[in-house]
Amino acid sequence: MQESLETVFGAMPFILQGAGITAGTVLCAMLLGLLLGVPMAVGQTHGGSILRRAIGLYVWFFRGVPILVLLYLFYFGLAYQVSSLHFNLAGREFSVSFELSPFAASCIVLGLTSAAYQSQIFRGAINSLPAGQLKAARALGMRDSVAVMHVILPQALRLSIPGLSNEYSILLKDSALVSVLGTMELMSRTKAIATSTAEYTAFYVTAALLYFIITILGVRGLRRLEKTLRIPGYTHV
Amino acid sequence: MTTHITSGSAVLEARGFCKSLGGKRILNDVSLRVNKGEMKVLIGPSGAGKSTFLQCINYLIPPDEGVLFLNGTPVAPSVKRELYALRERVGMIFQDFNLFDHLTVQENVSIALVKVKGMNRGAAALRAMEELERVGLSRRASVYPAQLSGGQKQRVAIARALAMDPEVILLDEPTSALDPELVGEVSAVIRELARGGMTMILATHQMEFARALATEILFMDRGEIIERGAPAELLASGGNTRTRAFFCKLAAEEGAC
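ok -> structure tokens follow
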């Protein structure tokens, strides 16, 4: 027991660095999901029929395909294919090459997946607002874009925070999957060091605790944000 | 489209408005003309089309047929710029207030001044305070709508519409959602506006408004205007009008007719 603890403490800096990468991946994915999810929700609630269908298709695709498949498809398939592009423009040859890091690929895949789920959280929040809000904004001469930006979204985003908190904790757990790309995050490091030291229980318990702590910190942060943004006297049903 | 120019000093004229929803005719050739300083009162049973008609006037519900004239000029709502300009010039008060819950009372009144009229925030805030003063709520400027009573909410909604300097205000049953003891404060503000010469079209069930303030009463039923005339004419005691019968039915519970 004593020996196991010493091994774990000795490897702590290595593990904690992994926890940092995990937190970073989730944060980046949440932000990408937010940046794409909000316009997608607005498009689904206020856009034309073609846009609504296109977004619907996107959401179904990312909800329907396992993240593991998406990670392999994106990193070993798509990103590899386009990492070196050669094209001919106006008689001149151009070639572009880039290398996508496992971290960036993880953030993109998790972010695109999260966007699908977040868009539905925001869509639900937008639809839960009384129809009179948009009507009143229009009656004052506001364009729909202004009404959405200044009347609908500030209220809908507040209502979305509990849903986002849920999405955050699911995303954090899904982030363990990105170890298959070779991202040296919490799960990869735990697996590596547990195998090399044969201290499986001690290291996986440590990893579980760290995942738990990151979950608590994020959920509490969002709860605090919810309280800070609370509208006095307002109880939405 | 042929160009129509209306005669006289009509601030607003709706001509031949028709609207069907889900295969049901909601409005059938409804026309109304309101001159400066007049108050037209729409009355009629629930489902008569009063609210739909008011919302067709500022194209919140686009009518299937009909032309709207503002100061004699036809409005082309398919041109977005004209649609927004129309809504800026025609204020609207809703039955359920529709205040923006995330904004303070003062921000509720000033937001459209900033976002629609392009005023700077300071000037808009000052203007908002003037309008709140007018409806007696300047001391509640920094609270949120959820902290107000129904009557106060409706007064804020009136201040919000007034701040835009509208030429006409449409009031869609402004006191219907209020508890009886709160109706008075909103009625008083509307009476004050009428005295000040504000041009208004009001849908209501309140006989008091119709009798005391209406320039003309229009009785609607099943999407059509069945009767129209001055209050004295339609509400004369012993008269045999649909309007009087309707009000008597409403007042019967109170034994007032």
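The CA atoms of residues 10 and 35 of chain B lie 4 Å apart.
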